[in-house]
Structure formats: structure tokens, C-alpha cells
Task: inverse folding
């Protein structure tokens, strides 16, 4: 898991560095979020998926963020073709069991050294579930940082659905 996260961090930095103009203008955002989504929570939400899910987090995108809401945009679900198959979520959180935002954040902090943002959504029966995990990066130095937002739309307990 650590190796996958490290590779994703490096890929994000390479993309950022290669696309940056020589003398960038002031940026209208405060930091970046590398967002991962749990495939099952995407497909059992409001809009069902046409293809079966697999037991992995997928990369939703690298998004500019502001410290204060509203977010810069709402692009909806990212196309299915960009899904990234990575290692299973750490064993300290058991898939299919209720958990808490704190348990998810602590598990990720133990692996990365940084505090993420956890986002929840509701499945079709109304149960709150783990939906997305945000890893944050400084916009100037591109180094990981603690995310300023703890959670989005979560109230404990939350479900961690089986694929």
C-alpha cells in the first residue's frame, strides 16, 4: 500500500512539474487533492454502474482545492476508463463492516504520515458509506500535507461496503 501511494505521489508531482509554465501566475486555489474513490460506493449510489466493480480504490482525479468552500467545480463522476487498480485497503479496516471516519483517517495517517479528508455518500437504501479519500499536496512545493478538511458528508458509523 505504501509503495502504491508513493508511486501515485510521484506520478502526481511529475504531471504537475511537466505542465507548469516557466513563470506561473498566481493560482486561484490553495492546494491539490489526489482523490481515490471506493468502486462499490460509486456503483451502489444514486447512479448504478453498467460494469461490475472490483475490490479496489480507483483514482478519481487530481483536483485544485480551496481552504474555504465552495469547491472550484463539480465535475461529477470521472469516466470508468480511468480507473486504477491498486492494493486493497489496509487490513485494519475490514471490508463489509461499519467503521468510523477517525479509524479511516488514522489508518491512512499511519501509512502516509499525513491526515486525509474522508468523504461519504449514501447507498440506495440510505446508509452512509465510505466514498472517497483525499490526499492533499501543497500547490507550490508539491509535497504531501495534512488535509484541512476532516470529512465531507460523514456521520459515524459509516459502512465500508464489500465489492
Result:
Amino acid at each position: 500500500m505504501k509503495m502504491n501511494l508513493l508511486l501515485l505521489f510521484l506520478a502526481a508531482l511529475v504531471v504537475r512539474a511537466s505542465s507548469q509554465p516557466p513563470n506561473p501566475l498566481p493560482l486561484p486555489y490553495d492546494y491539490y487533492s489526489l482523490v481515490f474513490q471506493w468502486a462499490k460506493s460509486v456503483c451502489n449510489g444514486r447512479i448504478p454502474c453498467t460494469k461490475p466493480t472490483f475490490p479496489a480504490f480507483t483514482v478519481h482525479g487530481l483536483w485544485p482545492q480551496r481552504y474555504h468552500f465552495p469547491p472550484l467545480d463539480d465535475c461529477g463522476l470521472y469516466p470508468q476508463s480511468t480507473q486504477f487498480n491498486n492494493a486493497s485497503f489496509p487490513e485494519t479496516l475490514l471490508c463489509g463492516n461499519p467503521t468510523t471516519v477517525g479509524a479511516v483517517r488514522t489508518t491512512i495517517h499511519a501509512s502516509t504520515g499525513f491526515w486525509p479528508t474522508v468523504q461519504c455518500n449514501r447507498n440506495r437504501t440510505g446508509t452512509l458509506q465510505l466514498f472517497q479519500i483525499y490526499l492533499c499536496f501543497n500547490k507550490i512545493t508539491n509535497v504531501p500535507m495534512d488535509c484541512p478538511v476532516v470529512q465531507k458528508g460523514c456521520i459515524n458509523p459509516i459502512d465500508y461496503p464489500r465489492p
